[in-house]
Amino acid sequence: GVTLAAPTPFHPSPATGNRQRSSPSKALSRIFNSRKVSSLASTSSWVYFTFIFDIGVRNISYPENCEIMKIKSCVGITKPSLLLVHSELPALTFHKTKLTWTSTLRFPSNYERTSGSVTRFHCSVAGRTGASTSVSSSSSKSNTVHLSRKQVKPSSLYSRPSLSNMKKERIANRAKVYEFLRVLGIIPDELDGLELPVTVEVMQERIDFLHKLGLTIEDINNYPLVLGCSVKKNMIPVLDYLGKLGVRKSTFTEFLRRYPQVLHASVVVDLAPVVKYLQGLDIKPNDIPRVLEKYPEVLGFKLEGTMSTSVAYLVGIGVSRREVGGVLTKYPEILGMRVGRVIKPFVEYLEGLGIPRLAIARLIEKRPHILGFGLEERVKPNVASLLEFNVRKASLPSIVAQYPEIIGIDLKPKLLGQRSLIQSIIDLEPEDFGTVVEKMPQIVSLSNTSMVKHADFLKGCGFSLQQVRSMVVECPQILALNLDIMKLSFDYFQMEMQRPLDDLVAFPAFFTYGLESTIKPRDKIVAKKGFKCSLSWLLNCSDEKFKERLNYDTIEMEEMETMPSFDMKSLMEPRSDESDSDYEEDSDDEYA
Question: Where along the chain is composition biased (Low complexity) (predicted)?
């Protein structure tokens, strides 16, 4: 038992200070001889406790004007002569003249037992009001005194703003930023939920940086989420990485207009793996920057998604693995095309027109951009337009193979315009216009000035309007060749070969052969042998075939070959030219 009594002042000995030595056994006797637990006097102004240690007595007294004081003690007794005490001293906070004290003590109710037990004692003192209760257990009776009063919530010296105040402050700051953006003409509606700078100054810094990159307010409104990117943490690291790869700074503006999401990316996690994957597709390191400039969206693709399946499909239809790097360099948009929705339907449609799959693969190797022609929006309507303008269905494969762009342009207006022009300069019949397109589909993109000049040249050479029309229907290429070369060939025809104009009317393709490489050498050989032959027999054959003809005694009619036409088999032959970089765009140098 323990007795809590009214204060008995403690006077320390001058020699020992606040600590007095006493016998442990006597101290135990004083504490536990009393079995009665006294109620605390309600008029007490001091609370006084005595704790017994094996080394002496410590007296702790607290004034009533302390607001909060807590002492937790655990006493375990195994022998009457030994008392173990573990004390946790309280943390004190002074604010009001109130006392709220909770103490937890564990001590045996019967000190004479050799094996003690632990019970709990709760005491709460606050002001003048108190209450006590006692609880007895089956093993040993213990008394519990509990004095309680409604505790007053303390107020910390280090006070924090409440969550509601912090939330209100955030809302106020965000409203200021929104108002600042509206003044600049930026619509912040899509920014709700996005982490933004808390100050207008930081937002101003981001907008100024974007302006330096060439982006306008309109560009920012197209993708306002770019305002969530930090200049130092996001924008500068990404742009530095692109610059080190070789992406030209002059292209940054267009790059970011097309794919502003790149500013959210992590260089290590998002960008570097994509670049490494592109290099693994045989795209040369020097071509990587050009690929990114042409198709920046590729930086947002998953490595094992659309990119890998599109490449695998192209290889499956016959595109050479050695050509994959060049194909992707010319037209990296292929990496974003879905096989089932875009590439496969396009290939199957061309097969349905009569173009062999291997020929389609060769077309893709040379002009991979044809895969970007919308099948429903452009390709099918253009094929229908060709048939409408008297092009034979059997000629469609040859037309597409010669000039794949014809199925990707806005064709019908061009067909109308070119037919009207040719009809006006050489009086061409509508039915013949289809034949002209079959033999030279590029005529739909030929400039008006070029056709007029060539028609005038032929008329100036002495050909009649009817003869010019016949020559154009037979060989439309004469409307697109280099005029200077045509003049040299015609001068040689007149001065050296001294043939009639009717020979040119019968074989207008004469102008398509090289003067120095073919016409002059063969003409001299035939003249030396004394042969009399047509221009077609002289020119319309390979060098090997021409040598065979020179061994004939006579010129047989079956040796007379028809006008040269496009051979689909030539397109299906493997490509022999391998360039270091396939980035250069193809051009039709043979046409004016």
Answer: 132-142
